[in-house]
Give the backbone structure.
Amino acid sequence: MNISEYKDVLVFVEQRDGIVEKVSKELISKGREIADTLGVKCKGALLIDEVNDNLDELFHWGLDELFIVKHNSLGEFMTEPYTKAITQICEEQMPEIVFFGATSIGRDLAPRVSSRMNTGLTADCTSLAVDEETNNLMMTRPAFGGNIMATIICPEHRPQMTTIRPGVMPMINKDETKAAVITEVQVAFTDADANIEILEVVKHTHEQVKIEDANVLVSAGRGIGNPSKLGLLDDLAVKLGGTVSSSRAVVDAGWVDRAQQVGQTGKTVRPDLYFACGISGAIQHLAGMEESEFIVAINKDDTAPIFDTADLSIVGDLNAVIPELIKLLPTKENK
Amino acid sequence: MNIVVCIKQVPDTNEVKLDPKTGTLIRDGVPSIINPDDKAGLEAALVLKDRFDAKVTVLTMGPPQADKALREALAMGADEAILLTDRAFAGADTWATSMTLAAAIRKIDYDLIIAGRQAIDGDTAQVGPQIAEKLELPQVSYVKELDRDGDHLFITREFEDRAHKIKIKMPCLITTLAELNEPRYMSVAGVMDAYREKEVQTWTRADIVIDDAALGLKGSPTRVKKSFTKAVKAPGKKYDVDAAQAAQIILDNLKEKYII
Amino acid sequence: MNFDLSKEHLMLQEMYRKFTETEVKPLAEEVDEEERFPVETVKKLARYGFMGIPFPKEYGGAGADNLAYAMAVEELSKACGTTGVIVSAHTSLCATPIYEWGTEEQKQKYLVPLAKGEKLGAFGLTEPNAGTDAAGQQTRAVDMGDHWVLNGSKIFITNADYADIYIIMAMTDKSAGTRGISAFIVEKDFPGFSVGKKEKKMGIRGSATCELIMEDCIVPKENLLGKIGKGFSVAMKTLDGGRIGIAAQALGLAQGSLDETVKYVKERKQFGRAISKFQNTQFQLADMDTRTEAARLLVYKAARKKDAKIPYSKEAAMAKLFAAEAAMEVTTKAVQLHGGYGYTREYGVERMMRDAKITEIYEGTSEVQRMVIAASLLK
């Protein structure tokens, strides 16, 4: 493998139902930035059955060229046809770097492609940089259950491949004057490539997540005042991709189901984010949530004991703070 | 029906804590467990064993203490256990690991290979699909439901926004999510059998056919340049400001923590 | 003298803990509040082999040993004293005497389903007028040629009503004193057998403790357990083994309350710091831990001796005596260290204290244990 023969960044552009996923635009924007640092091009590869989207936007975010493979086996994701197509494009284009979104598609496809090409793959990257000395890509990602960060390099193999966590890379520097350059690529698919049969596609509806499984909890205490305020907390939860939970007082008052109770006699939770709204912080409640990764407490009472445990303490009226926060938050797209 | 289940012994990363003084991970005393996604895969295999009298072989690549994870699998009901262990395998990234495991699996009779989707220490979710590639097998990952009819499997494959109902012919490889099932406990008799009636076979580098160049740290295309712990949890900050400012402070903190 | 646990015992301990954490602990409060016998838990215990731990596989058991069994009762009791005693009474007091003195036919017919947990067992010795003075049996068994007829009543019988199989002691020859007592295997649906009043108790409230009534109860001839007139000996030796189980239950209660207390004192703040920082708290905890560990050594030693088939009656009595008194002391201190919160039913320690008391009374009061130990010394 002669490393110097490999040039350019290639982004796997992921689509579902013919519409490009947001993560791909994030990756194109980042790809553009990395490509500029290296002085190379940023290309994309889109596998699709029917295009239902405006592909111009991809160029506005920084693509120089887009390769499209159109085939009826590429509508819904199947490992082998996708692997075959991406591998062919990689072999023809010889990119030095390939990005995939760390989605349930990307994390299935990327290992298969990297293994077929006998090159290295880094998973679930959250930050990227170029090593000034070697021009190697430095891929940083969480490991050990998120307890440490590791920076990975792939010094002697090409392409350097990585899946990148959605929602982390910012979309910046939109250039709406940039022209679209699209090339269709033919891949010799055979019947044998469809080695699984998709019998049915079932779209998900919004399901109630159990509080002990939720990554984000917006928790109600007696300080919310009355049950009508739960709607406000639910709005915040939806914005954050989370679920509403509560203290015992709220359950005893009949405002919320017992299944949502956090505490000594309720459930123990350890979400990434715990919003304690109008919760005083009695010891029985703390016992159920003090292991949360990041605790934000909002309470009118400056002396509330919850403030001793919270990472971020806001002395204020949740009825005023939460609506302001909801205004500032982007809408949560992918889970 | 012959099933090979790949499992990994991992530290229970939920129980790992940061030493507030040194900022490093406290690994001592952290219990070792069978990786949760793998355990679900093992349970799926045992369910197939209960229903179809399948033979279940558990395989792990690891240090000698991974024996305990294999014993646990035997105690749950697995028939055979293989510990693939050798200094030569150490430091392997996912590519080298999958090459080594594939080489071992080639020596075993199988209709179905099951691996967990991802390990809670490496968090890569790469080894399963890479093994499938090396063995030239079709794969289905993110398996949330599994059933068998003759030499076909009927699977529900989970995506973020949808699910596919899939039919696939064996031999093949699947990767399982912890949500697939509630793994059974070991039984008392199972534990006694695991240590007294059943054995753990140990395979070393000499027992598999593989290029030296594909082994361990030297055989790994990727390597760790550096690793560091996230900042130790600083004491909380308190703010008494107006609502709009408070909201902005919250937002900035959430962004900083990669929560949004 | 090796105090280490073998790999098998360590793995069993791990399994017991996981099972208890997920299946037993969440129900403990409800089982106590509602005085509910945890039927669904018993089914799961059966599925995983908890109901026949020390019996060989050929009799449906798990093929482990008495140490493994004691450890199981200990771990279960850390979360729920009721669940611990269900397993203990079933294993030590019903399945074990059939294993030790039963004929091959009796073992196949009764031991196998008991060990598999398909049937639940109980033991009937205590009567309204015969507690510590167990020899004063008034239940009579008359030989009718091709069957026995039993008349009498038993009280304070653990697992009653839910149990299918009962080991019942009855007087077959009043003139022979303790040598006139015989043991019988009685099935719940034998004619003339009924379960009477259920006791309302201070603790182990989910455990079913009832009266048994035999009114011209017909028992098949072949259900005599052991030789005629040997029933008292069967009962006494059975209780020796049962003491290991109860000692393990007491040990579990002590350890469970200690674990809860350690967690609590780290969280609870008074005078600007966690109460774990105060020396009094630390000293109390040190005493609780030492007493519990001492109890553990006595329990495990008695179990190991039984497994080695060495006489263990004195060790079992010591274990039961010490562990029960330690449990009472440790759980009481646990409530004290929790302060006012410990007195409320929101925290588990008050239940553990209420559960601990019975361990000083049943299967031989602490006074009886002292009699056994002294008798052994003064032989």
Notes: Chain C touches chain A at residues 29, 263, 267-269, 341, 346-347 (CB under 8 Å). Chain C has a mean pLDDT of 97. The CA atoms of residues 125 and 131 of chain C lie 8 Å apart.
